[in-house]
């Protein structure tokens, strides 16, 4: 298991001098600080295993980018800060993800996709019929683990431990009024009393439109107790209109 294998001096080198799929029966990689020049990164960007996982795109990890703001007085200092204090945070996420994946075996599902942009837009959801592998400790349980070289697998994680998240596709159709302004949120509750709120739409709302959003929810679907629909009406709206959900459809896996 390669935990953000080093990029400087290794990127683009022959397989004989770096980690590659021939080094073991099965090689899985977690890329967390990969970057192409002139961007500064400590990890390797190119695929270098049987299964290459790129959480959050593989370069910048949530929860790391708000560190040491006082160091960023200009663009040059920002790059130096990212490469040292902050870069180390991105780089270290690889082993933190691996540790947490042992306890959360379903929370790190990687989707095969060409680019992170396509993944974020939902082009690679749901998983293909052969399934998706789990990043981290349970990657070797993927039946097709040796069949696809140079395939990138993308997923998003949370900013804080345990970092696990479950991708879900949400459809909402509204009813009640023709048009109004405000925002629509969903609140996920689990059996342990945890709650997470996610925005689905904001601004002009219409009952003629179906709102679709891909969410990376930090509440395990197996432990979800309740999902709450919440409409926040814009302040100073003259019409105290009622607005509700006619249809709410949430897809995760086969559910």
From TrEMBL:
GO cellular component, alphabetical, reads: extracellular region
Q: Where primarily located?
A: secreted
Q: Which residues form a coiled coil?
A: none
> Which SUPFAM superfamilies does the entry link to?
alpha/beta-Hydrolases, Lipase/lipooxygenase domain (PLAT/LH2 domain)
Q: List localization entries.
A: Secreted
The alphabetical list of record keywords is:
Secreted
Spell out the molecular function terms from Gene Ontology: lipoprotein lipase activity
* Every Lipase domain range: 2-163
Q: Which family does it belong to?
A: Belongs to the AB hydrolase superfamily. Lipase family.
Name of the featured protein:
Pancreatic lipase-related protein 2
Source organism per UniProt: Merops nubicus
Q: What is the lineage of its organism?
A: Eukaryota, Metazoa, Chordata, Craniata, Vertebrata
């Amino acid at each position: 298991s390669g935990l953000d294998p080093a990029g400087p001096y290794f990127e683009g080198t022959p397989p004989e001098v770096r980690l590659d799929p021939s080094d073991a029966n099965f090689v899985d990689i977690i890329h967390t600080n990969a970057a192409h020049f002139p961007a500064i990164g400590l990890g390797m960007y190119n695929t270098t295993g049987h299964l290459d996982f790129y959480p959050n795109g593989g370069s910048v990890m949530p929860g790391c980018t708000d560190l040491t703001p006082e160091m960023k007085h200009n663009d040059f200092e920002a790059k130096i800060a990212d490469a040292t204090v902050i870069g180390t945070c991105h780089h270290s996420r690889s082993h933190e993800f691996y540790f947490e994946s042992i306890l959360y075996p379903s929370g790190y599902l990687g989707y095969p996709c060409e680019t992170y942009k396509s993944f974020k837009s939902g082009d690679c959801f749901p998983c293909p019929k052969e399934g998706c592998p789990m990043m981290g400790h349970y990657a070797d349980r993927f039946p097709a683990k040796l069949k696809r070289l140079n395939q990138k697998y993308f997923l998003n994680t949370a900013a804080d431990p345990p970092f696990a998240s479950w991708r879900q596709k949400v459809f909402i159709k509204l009813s009640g009024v023709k048009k109004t302004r405000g925002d629509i949120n969903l609140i996920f509750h689990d059996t342990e009393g945890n709650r997470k709120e996610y925005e689905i739409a904001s601004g002009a709302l219409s009952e003629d439109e179906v709102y679709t959003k891909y969410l990376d929810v930090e509440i395990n679907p197996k432990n979800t107790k309740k999902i709450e629909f919440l409409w926040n009406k814009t302040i100073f709206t003259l019409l105290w209109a009622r607005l509700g959900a006619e249809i709410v459809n949430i897809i995760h896996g086969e559910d």
